[in-house]
Every structure is written in C-alpha cells, then in structure tokens.
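Thread: quick sanity check before group meeting

JM: Hey all, I'm pulling together slides for Thursday and realized we never actually wrote out the predicted structure for the chain we discussed last week. Dropping the sequence here so it's in one place. If anyone has concerns about the input, flag it before I start.
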Amino acid sequence: MEAVSLSDTSKKPQSSQISPGPGFRIKTKFVRPNPALIAKIAEYETPDISDMLNRMYTMSPGIRGISESCRVVGPACTVKVYPGDNLMVHKALDVAQPGDVIVIDTSESYKNAVLGDLVTNKAKHRGVAGFVIDGLVRDIEGIREAGLPVFSRGYTPFGPLHRGPGELNYPISCGGLVVNPGDIISADINGIVVIRQEFAEHTVSSLASHREELSDYIANVKKGIFSNEWVDRLLTQEKCGVDD
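JM (edit): ok, ran it. Output follows.
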C-alpha cells in the first residue's frame, strides 16, 4: 500500500467549507422558540418575568436602553467580537431572521463602539427586532432616528475595526449571564431578562398564574387597602429584636 504523508491532500476530498475552530466560527442555523411562546412572554414586563425566574436571569443594570423605542422581545442571535472589532456584527445581519434580537459580547471591551446608525438601519431593513450590547455604540441620533430598540452600556465616537476574529451563534456572556442562541430576550425600560428555551413554557405558565393571584392584591394596594402583617411574621420567624 502506498504511504501517504499527513500533509499530502491530493488523495483527500476537497471542500469549500473551512471547519469551524474556536474563536473564529459561524453557526448559520439554530433552534428558535415557538413564536406563540414569544408572544406570550411579550405580554409581561421584565420585573414580573424576573420574579418568575427566581431573580436569577437578569442582566447587569449597566446595560440600558439608549434608543427612543425601549421594548423588545425575541430569540437571541448571539455574537462574540474581538475587542474593538465588529466584523461578526455585520455578518449577523446575513444570519439573523426577522424578529431576532442580536446580542453582542464585546469581551468587556468598553473603548470602541461596535454598533452605529448604519448597521442599525441595515438591521431594521432585515427585520431584526433589536440589539442588546455588553459594550458601546455611537451615532446616537441616527440610532434613535432608525427607531430600533438598542440597549448598551453607553456610547463613544470611537469606531471599531472590521477584521475579526469572532463567533456567531455560539454561547456568549452578556451582562453577567450566559446567553445561548435561541434564548428568549425580553428587554424594556426596567432592564433585560433572559429566558432559556428549556424553561420558557414553565415561565409563561408561572406568569399567567402569578397574574391571576396578584390582580386583586394590586388593585387593593392602589386603593390603599393592604396589611403589613406578613412583614412582622417574617421578622418574628427570623428572631429579629425590637427595641420599643
């Protein structure tokens, strides 16, 4: 049998695709949640959702809405960029589907903007629902004019490079949470929560039950009808001392 060198590719099938390697790879397809499930979650504000998630899946409050439109719900299309670069943000426009929320991990690089008015307008025409960025943006007036919900840590005129590397639709870190492609992002003026697909249905069910339980209580509180007996009960239970 003829010996074949490991470097000899003449007898191996050639492929136009490069195998994805860590740090510079793109996943074009991922499982998205049922649109009906997303619509149900959109009925609730983020504080209610956070409560049903045991307050464990809320992003850092440092990421805030900077556009005039400050409400977005949709599946996450995840992007991890090299610090100071946004090549994969541009590529995300080709991969994201209408209704997706593009979530960007800048590896805690807070010098360069990774989004501006041009990318925002392009995303709007592609049907992207909005952006959540653990980093900075620029061209604020243009972003607000585009009308797309954008959440970030702030803004700067300092723009990015377009060289890579980066990753698209792999797990990322954003606002102190792991975000997977397809996780449901709910963001509003209060902040941002992440609902994992595996417990999205349970979350919707809990939200519905919670709303029914609280409806009368909330109505009474607005009228000034309430009791703080539960506070004293907890204080007694925890053996809190009282000095009269």
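AS: nice. Residues 1-10 have pLDDT under 50 and may be disordered. The chain has one domain: 24-207.
JM: adding both to the slides.
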